[in-house]
Amino acid sequence: MSGPLLLSVRGLGVRYRAEGQSVEALTGIDLDLHARERIAIIGESGSGKSTFGLALAGLLPRGSEVSGSIAWPGLGAAPKPGKDIGIVFQDPGSSLNPVLTVGEQVAEVCRTHLGMGWRRSYARAVELLDRVRLPSPEGIVRAYPHQLSGGQRQRVAIAMAIAGRPRLLIADEATSAIDTVVQAEIVGLIRELCSADALALLFITHDIALASGLVDRIAVFRAARMVEIGPAEEVVSAPSSPYTAALIDAHLGLDAA
Amino acid sequence: MSDLLEVRGLTKTYRRSRETIAALRGVDLTLAPGETLALVGNSGSGKTTLGRAIARLIEPDGGAIRFEGRDLLAMRGRELRAMRARLQIVFQEPLEAFNPRATVFRVIADPLRVHRLAGRAEMPEAVSRLLVRVGLEPALAARAVHEISGGQRQRVAIARAIATRPSLIVLDEPLSALDVSVRGRILALLDDLQAETGVAYLLITHDLGVANAVAGRITVIDGGSIVEEGPTKVVLADPQSAAARRLVAAVPRLHRRTEPARIGG
Amino acid sequence: MSVLRFLRTPEGAVGGFLLAALAFVALSAPVLFPGDPLAIVGPAYLHPFANPAFPLGTDSLGRNVLAGVMHGARTSLVIGLAAAFAAIVVGSAVGTLAGLFGGVVDEVLMRITEAFQTVPAFLLALAFVSVVGPSMGTVVVAIALSAWTAPARVARAEVLSIRQRDYVAAARAVGMHPLAIAFREVLPNALPPVLSLASVIVASAILIEAALSFLGLGDPNVATWGTMISEGRNVLRSAAYLSIAPGIALMVTVLAIYFAGEGAVEAASARRIAS
């Protein structure tokens, strides 16, 4: 299912400095990610799961202290965020520019990272909006973000994330702000795009059940550390850490309550 | 037993520049005392509008609401404010639901002060009791609401809601802003409080998993109309409407290994 | 802590230092130069640094320029602060009422606000003082008369957005009285952006006061920088220092207030980012 080694993280630690204090956000993280592999990072708020995504994408805030190493054997060079790595954040309302049309924003990524002219970028934007299954992409390209629903905006954010033809897609709580029906559609879309484009996926979420149906491996983070990592089915069926077991018990499913 | 809440033919239309959006198209709903009814729907289905109309935060265009045998929509001014002690609401975003300058103490003291349930002298004691009741340390009272965690905030919101001993609390997506692991503990707290005080809940959610965990009955709203209603087990096992089927299919499932391979435990 | 953050920004450090110095000057004026700064105390046209008793020299009537500048600081700061205070109190009250009640109240209040905005601030002040007569009080009112419109508009915009927030809905759900909601929940949260206008209003109030005095419409019984500049203008060639000294004082004061305002905004936004 997975290919050659894309990413190798060794002993990664991140500390944030705020108000003169230094806070440990991540410590001693080791992780290998192969091309086309899908991995979920599970954790609660404050577990360091989002910091991990930001560290891989090179988007940590200024003043963060990083230790350990992040190597990209699969790329041969340091990755360009937006091109080699596509990122989708939780709130598409704040990650899209409110004064540009959706088409302009998607086209901008194609122009910057693929060196296309405006005309071709714009045509590509329409294709991408179609790929993320937005209805009538020719109309949507001219729409402004506020004219779209939350789920539609998240599709636009995904279109932007894949516009630079990345090797890795990072989805950071990408479905937490939307309702379950749209969430299921977005997860389906991510699954489909990853298969079609041979993308590796880092799916960051607090919902282990949601992740279990999507990824090959699950890593569980707690208080800046990785407490467990393994094949998704194994982690869900026989968790090795009591914390993971508690997360699984907390799932509210449709079984008789 | 007579109904605690009875909603009949409720309608509400929003006008935004040129277009009109029908948020509620004649909604009927009943709730018995001490019951938990889940109102389930997508975003845009009208469920939040309905919840806020019942809490008298939005004025509906037509229809009737009876609460504790009285005509809720006819109430005005002082009478309406006094009624609010009986009908409370908990919002989705616990941070949004508090004045950003407020302390935990002030948030919980407000309803006690407004409805004269505690004087200035008894207030610290009354606030402490409510904090303990929702599983928080009394010392938390001195903290600003923006300093505490999301789970703690939602507990503070619940403390504010139960302070006046209401007979109905509208819970508007009370869990969706919280981590999965915190959700169960909040649900357990809501369960406890219901067992103790007999309060009824109208639980608004888009997640049938949440509804399944607490509600005896589910009503599904779609496009401003109730499309399905019944006991939780029945609706989940055999959803009739397309909206309910979509909602059932969308609940994330734990993908365990097919053979039960749990050794030890 | 927030004061520290304010002083850590370069603008805040410079503005804070200059304002502290100005406040010291204004407060120490009656101690260092007791009595009327407008009294004749020495020979006329004494140049600066010529006589240690009159470090900044004397004017055409033999009045002490340093005493005038220091007492003038009192006048400028008192009028600037009083006018800004009046403008912000009136403006935020009007804006809050307009934003909260909406409808006809909003329409009427906002049309009145616009009517005041269409008249240039200085002309309005000039007309008012010409009619009522110059005194500290009328100058303050004259300046506040045009300065309240900006706080009113900002307060209204803030209230309109706060009105939609869940915590206002929560206060209604608790059963709070509408006036309690307006003054306990809405107004305190609408104020910070209104207060950030304060530095601009104070600075422009000081400039308008100086301009009124320059035209002879200031309070004739107190020392003001505008009057001093105006009187020095007649002898600009022979005794330029008479205009330059109060001119520099005016410039430093206005800059100090702008810097302090910038520093405060910077410190507030740094706090927002940190939290």
The percent range for strand residues of chain C is under 5%
At the first level of CATH, the class of chain C is Mainly Alpha
Q: Over the alpha carbons, how many angstroms does the gyration radius of chain C reach?
A: 22 Å
Any idea what the CATH superfamily of chain C is called? Answer: MetI-like
Fraction of helical residues of chain C: over 70%
Question: What is the domain total for the residues of chain C?
Answer: 1
SSE-based structural type of chain A: alpha/beta
By oligomeric state, this entry counts as heterotrimer
**Overall form of chain A:** globular
Q: Total number of helical segments of chain C? A: 12
Gap between N and C termini of chain C, in Å? 14 Å
Short description:
The complex is a heterotrimer of chains A (about 260), B (about 260) and C (about 280). By secondary structure, chain B is an alpha/beta fold.
List keywords for this structure.
heterotrimer, A: alpha/beta, 6-stranded mixed β-sheet, 3-stranded antiparallel β-sheet, 10 helices, 37% helix, 26% strand, B: 265 residues, alpha/beta, Rossmann fold, 2 domains, 4-stranded antiparallel β-sheet, 10 strands, 34% helix, disordered C terminus
Task: Reconstruct the topology from this structure.
The complex is a heterotrimer of chains A (257), B (265) and C (275).
Chain A: E1 5-18, E2 21-34, E3 38-42, H1 49-57, E4 65-71, E5 85-88, H2 92-95, H3 102-114, H4 118-131, H5 137-140, H6 150-163, E6 168-172, H7 180-197, E7 200-205, H8 208-212, E8 217-222, E9 225-231, H9 232-237, H10 242-249
Parallel strand pairs in A: 3-7, 3-8, 5-6, 6-7
Antiparallel strand pairs in A: 1-2, 1-4, 8-9
Chain B: E1 5-16, E2 19-31, E3 36-40, H1 47-54, E4 62-67, E5 70-71, H2 77-83, E6 87-90, H3 104-114, H4 123-133, H5 150-162, E7 168-172, H6 180-197, E8 200-205, H7 208-214, E9 217-222, E10 225-231, H8 232-237, H9 242-250
Parallel strand pairs in B: 3-8, 3-9, 6-7, 7-8
Antiparallel strand pairs in B: 1-2, 1-4, 4-5, 9-10
Helix pairs in contact in B: 3-4, 3-5, 5-6
Chain C: H1 2-8, H2 10-32, H3 65-101, H4 103-118, H5 121-132, H6 136-147, H7 149-163, H8 166-174, H9 178-195, H10 198-214, H11 225-233, H12 241-274
Helix pairs in contact in C: 1-12, 2-3, 2-12, 3-4, 3-6, 3-7, 3-9, 3-10, 3-12, 5-6, 6-10, 7-9, 8-9, 10-11, 10-12, 11-12
